[in-house]
Design goal:
The two termini are about 20 Å apart. About 10% of the residues lie in helices and about 50% in strands. The radius of gyration is 21 Å and the shape is elongated. With about 220 residues, it is mainly beta. The protein has a 5-stranded mixed sheet with strand order 1-4-11-8-9, with no helix packed on it. The chain has a 4-stranded antiparallel sheet with strand order 5-6-7-10. It is built from 3 helices and 11 strands. The relative contact order is 0.23.
Length: about 220
């Protein structure tokens, strides 16, 4: 098994938790410019981690024979879809649960069959730091005579509310009203290194994907 290089990843899917939004946290819902009484950024954020599927890990291909890479040897192709996050941010430990479907096709319609596929759920802070990683398996079931099979999996994350909360001074710098003529009226607060670093530290993600071998990952990248 291999680990994905998260800092350089691209995301297939990005979703925010469905809990009520607060003004601090880890997943931006909107960043609207509010010009009433001055210019400021209305940043509605949530302590719930964003949920995403990194590029090249959202699908998996099994071959038969396993050593072949011919199109005719493709046995099963499966993909993660319908990722649904549900977040509980009512306590100091924010809990993010993400359910997902796995939809697969097999080469031959035949007897009923089950295929077990490994997947991971990784909690990432600031886009680079792996806080936790858990592995699981999802069972895809093909009914008799059908080439299409489905399975369902879940991944979860706990995040400390304090870690996902922007410091008060950073919040103030981001949302403070700025009037025309102010020295910093034309300065985007998020362009300031210390503000950008604080926002990054308070940002968490729950990443979900298939736990691929190096060869499987390279196959996905080459396609």
């Amino acid at each position: 098994m291999i680990s994905i290089s998260f800092p350089s990843r691209k995301l297939l899917t990005v979703l925010c938790g469905t809990a009520a939004m607060a003004t601090v946290g880890g997943c931006a819902k909107d960043n609207d410019i509010d010009v009433s009484g001055g210019v400021g950024i209305t940043a509605t954020r949530s302590a719930c981690p964003a949920v995403a599927v990194p590029l090249h890990t959202g699908d998996i291909t099994l071959f038969d024979p396993a050593t072949s890479r011919d199109a005719s040897a493709i046995d099963v192709v499966a993909a993660i879809t319908n990722v649904t996050p549900v977040c509980n941010d009512a306590s100091e430990k924010v809990y993010q649960l993400a359910s997902f479907d796995v939809v697969a096709t097999r080469r031959d319609a035949g007897p009923a069959r089950s295929v077990t596929l490994p997947y991971y759920g990784t909690v990432l802070q600031g886009g680079t730091a792996v806080v936790a990683k858990r592995l699981g398996n999802v069972v895809v079931t093909f009914p008799e005579g059908q080439t299409r099979g489905t399975g369902r999996g879940q991944a979860s994350a706990y995040v400390d509310r304090a870690a996902a909360t922007l410091p008060a001074d950073i919040q103030e710098r981001i949302t403070r009203r700025r009037k025309a003529g102010d020295q910093d009226a034309a300065i985007d607060p998020l362009s300031q290194p210390e503000v950008r670093a604080a926002v990054q530290r308070a940002s968490f993600e729950l990443l979900i994907g298939f736990q691929l071998t190096q060869e499987q990952l390279e196959y996905n990248v080459r396609r």
